Amino acid sequence: MNDMKRILFYGLIICCGWIPGVGFAAAPLEISSSSDGISRLEMEVDGRPRNLIDRGASLGPAVIKYRSGAAIRECDTRNVPARVLFNNGDSARLFWQLESGLRLYQNFFLRGEEFTWEFVLFNRRNRPTEILDLSFWLPVCGVDEAVAPRDNFNRHVSVNRDASWFYWAPLDGYGEHVVMLPEDGTSLEYVTDDNWFFIHSSTSVDREKDTWRQPSTTRMLRPYEKVRYAFRLFKADGREAVAESICENGGLLFEFVPGMVVPEGVKAAFAVRTRHNIAGITAEYPESTVLTRGADKGEYELWNVEFDRLGENRLTVSYGDGKTCYLDFFVTRPLRELICKRAAFITTKQQHRDASKWYDGLYSLYDMERGELLSPDYLQDLREDFMVGGSDDPSNSKPVFVSEKNVLYPDSLEIASLEYYEKNFVWGKLQRTGEEYPYPYGIYGSENWYRNRSGMDGDYDAGGSGKGRMWRTFDYTTHIAIYYNLFRIAENNPKWVNYLDADGYLDRAYHTAMAFFEVPYNILMGEQWAFHGWCDWAYKQGNFHERYILDLIDALQDRGRQKEADRLRREWEKKVTYMIYEDEWPFGSEMFVDRTAFESSYYIGEYALETEMVPREQFWYDKNRRRWYSYTAFDESAERDFMQKQLEANLALRGIYEPGYSRCGTAWTGNGAALDYMSQMGGVALLDYAVRFSDEPYKYVRYGYNSILSSWALMNVGNEASNYGYWYPGKERDGAAGWAFCIFQHSHPYMRYLDTGRGPWRYDGEIDHGFTGGVHGAGIYVVNDPVFGTICYGGDLTVEDKAYRIRPYDGAGRYLAIPEAGGFEMRLYNNGMDDSRDQIFAENLDRMVLNLEKRGTCDSQQISFRNLPAGGYEIRIDGRNAGSFRVDSEWTDVNVGCGQDCFNLEIKKRN
User: DSSP for 21-82?
Assistant: First the structure.
């Protein structure tokens, strides 16, 4: 290189800031190559530069439909060339000249840590133009599998007219969140499943088959008038800061007690926080709604509401200068009725009984739209055998719910149905017996046991196919739960079981639990699968219903089977230690982003914090990583950190601020399938956390109770006055349910080849796993809430004479917690609280009066207390002395005789 060339070369470097091998520094805001918007919007999030626009996408595509004179025109900006009016690296303006004299400008401004996006429509003609529809695509912070899960975001959105908002939470729940709010005069009223959001939607919403609850609007532009719509995008430091930013920027924030799915007869309350004046709130059905203003509490305005109409009930909130938003509640039948009707429906209408069929005893899917039961011989519109064959979550969710219900409310006919299933469909068929080798007690996965056992897809050496398809761990935990529940049922009602006795079911539960850890881990996955190596899911990911393993360990110990309890505990502790100490992201499951783990992850954290584990050298060998895991000590701070991380990750996905029943409490707001099974199962984890570990129990009880109520909206249930079902009327469908809830007017379930509208999916699928969690988490929680005061979830509460008088409505009547009374908990092992009579608890817990009802055939009442104040207590049943007990530890178990169908049990502390 001669001297002149060298001078020019290095002069170029100095002028342009370019370094060979590094490239030009990208501008924080870049227009896409097609000029249809911006493809780069770089902001620093938690100290790292992030392009918030999805890979290969642009922010800016819009569709406008408008009327000018008699002509109606539509423009998709992706198909019309835009002029770039300016582009200077942190701001840009695009311009489209549309037909009939309408102009569209899009302005993008990045100023420091705030981004503004504007739409300006300018009517250049001497006649009015009516904007009929205006929508935009929003490819912001989408899931990107090219980066680690913790570096992804989950979108939360409320399409709610003037109170609309967006925020994106990091999947781990920590650090800066991204918030996008409409500016004054901009609102949202409709959204489609392909990510298009509508400012106006008058022709896009199908009003002939109307399932969309919000009205549509238009905007008339006078000659030479401009209208501006705008959004601001910025960061907020955490979940609480998101709420603050919504309120500070003119939005509304709502909190609900007990939730937005409300059992009939239950009084609900909500609080609204805003800088605006609330002009009024009106009911969709005023003749069936009692709406009253409560006393204000600080920044919150409190309201009470009682609904007397089943199904969807909307409240319209008028506020500020002519602004509007909506609160959509769902009113269902009493929870006890839902629980009992669902089990009755499954056992009478969803079980196949035909000894000539290989699937005799199977519980299968039901289509509540057509009123049809599916089977392996009749898939109807489905294309997947596994959904109806009993070897996967959609169909095996039915027996686990029936078993959970019959622990709570034993019914001899339903128990007989369960035993028929176990005898004719499970043992020696779906599940291998203890005498079948290899893999005794193994459970066959999809497509079904009949096909797998036949060998048509391969032998035991087929890499997890055919005869060796016993590696899907979720199937094991489901059957562990069923067997454990049958053990409970048999223990309490020995005369109502005929297939096995309590010890027999306990034995099956134990061997199935050991097979859960042993069988999949000894199956080497072949090249036909997306994952390879030995299937280690039992140890390395969350599987729903794993909490039953802990109950099973306790039952084994109680029955004197200590060696088996210790053996199972060792396997469980392998999982606990791996998840806490070895896995950087222990909150996934079968999917890249998933919510399935957030029941299991909580119980792993709880176990580590409440159980003293013994450190061991060479504790277990990882066959895939080819290494030993050894522990010389355990770190409580790491265990607490894990507990907090799993909580934050749960809430990052969960709907906690969304003011609509289909989103409030739902497990995964970024997923189109709302109210799915993990809404309730993960909600139980929040409730347990609130009672056991939180310094703010009111907050997590609210989140958790909103969650366990949420999915009950999927049940099709009613009374004679409502023709037995809001979603699909008719007595023959009373007790049916939907798999999940579609929030869009036109969309698809997981089976993309099917269409569905807004509402529950017509097949019941996996939801009974969720209902199982809803039954498990059902309880009564008394908390001191800084907004609502002393309140009770799961019961109507009055406080008098320094005592809580509670009329249960939780549907179970077996559990009560008062976290701020020293973490007090009470659990009934059998029978239950009578929901027609008051239960009385002194505030200092020196006296309690339980009005109980006998359920099943057991003649004793077993109660466990946690953190009951120390001292001696006397027991009286129906006024007669029934013994005494003493409290000198955290847990106290009481067992007394009972004979009558209803009885009064008084426990009083001695002076």
Answer: TT-PPPPSEEE-TTSSSEEEEEEEETTEEEE-BPTT--B--EEEEEEETTEEEEEEGGGSPP
